[in-house]
Specification:
single chain, 14 helices, about 65% helix, mainly alpha, 2 domains
Length: about 260
């Protein structure tokens, strides 16, 4: 009974989203319905702590996918105090919105990352899942361009703060997007990551952890895509410092391409 009360599909009649046959509330009525929904879900979350299971997480994912940016506070409120499965399901669902507008949601996750300790690490994971879901490798170019445009402000802020993110996998995702940012944002972000990479290579006498090596490979691909000759010398430096065969090959390949420009 407790699970039935808390699952999002059990509160369908209270949702402002409605079924496909229903008209979405607009104006003052829409705002009232949204506030009522937020209050109801938050009250249920407090009174009945969610017992997460695979189907419950799927329910939250579907619920998040049906929301709009105005519902971000509601989703973030549900995530507070719940376990990681629930948080991940919401992050996976929110990127499936029809508009793919999740900039405010990303900003809120980044604000959580500003904390310290385990909370920061958890927020980094949630950020990584959200960004990876928003920009999957198989995404067609037109869709990629549209999603970048819908979330550019939040993404640019992440790029400006790229040295703050401790998780190499999160940084690798941002590095992949950097060539598509404005000239005043993307190239400086790539240079900051280069300095971090070189520091890790020197500290490890050419050896790096697998996540840092993967970050180095992502960086080499990104500077190739950016095609900025200023990264020629950094590529040569990475190739000369690393003892990883794949990273050395990637850095040399990027250097050859940049030298030909």
């Amino acid at each position: 009974m407790i699970r039935d009360v808390q699952r999002p599909d059990r509160i369908e009649s209270m949702r402002p989203f409605g079924s496909q046959k229903e008209m979405r509330p607009t104006g003052a009525l829409g705002r009232f319905a949204r506030v009522r929904l937020a209050a109801t879900v938050m009250a249920l979350a407090v009174v009945f702590p969610l017992r997460v299971s695979a189907d419950a997480a799927a329910d939250w994912k579907g619920f998040a996918a049906s929301t709009v940016p105005a519902d971000d506070d509601l989703l973030l409120g549900v995530m507070d105090g719940h376990d990681l499965d629930t948080e991940l399901a919401i992050c996976q669902g929110v990127v499936e919105r029809k508009s793919h507008a999740v900039g405010g949601f990303i900003d809120a996750l980044a604000a959580r990352h500003a904390g310290a300790g385990p909370t920061s690490d958890r927020a980094a994971l949630l950020l990584r899942v959200t960004i990876a879901g928003l920009f999957p490798d198989s995404l067609p170019e037109p869709d990629l361009t549209a999603r970048l445009a819908a979330n550019r402000s939040a993404l640019e802020d992440l790029e400006r703060r790229i040295v703050e993110w401790r998780d190499p996998q999160l940084v690798a995702l941002l590095v992949g997007l950097a060539p598509r940012m404005d000239p005043g944002i993307g190239p400086p972000a790539l240079m900051r990551v280069y300095l971090r990479l070189v520091g890790a290579l020197r500290d490890g006498l050419g050896d790096t952890s697998p996540p840092m090596t993967a970050l180095g490979l992502a960086w080499c691909r990104a500077v190739q895509t950016a095609g900025i000759r200023d990264f020629l010398e950094p590529c040569v430096t990475v190739a000369s410092l690393s003892t990883d065969a794949d990273l050395v090959a990637a850095a040399r390949r990027a250097a050859r391409q940049l030298a030909a420009r």
